[in-house]
Amino acid sequence: MVDRCDRAVTTGADEETLERLLAEANAIVPYRLPGLVNRCARALGLDSATIYLVDLQQHLLIPLDDQTDPLQVDSSEGGWAYRTL
What we know:
The protein is mainly alpha-helical. The chain contains three helices and three strands. It folds into two domains: 1-49; 51-85, no CATH class.
């Protein structure tokens, strides 16, 4: 069973991690951004995180790290998030 206080502490730590991410992202060279995001993702308990940029025609989501395949905007969950959020 999780106590409300435990959740508050966890949420506070998660918020601090995200605040550090945003602060560092403002001062980082763009090609180092995937490493920063992955470091913060691991701190939040995730295996990894991938940043995608949309192409000019808005057909593909291109990963910033070059280790993942592009996603179709019209037929992927990432594309759905891009179109609706």
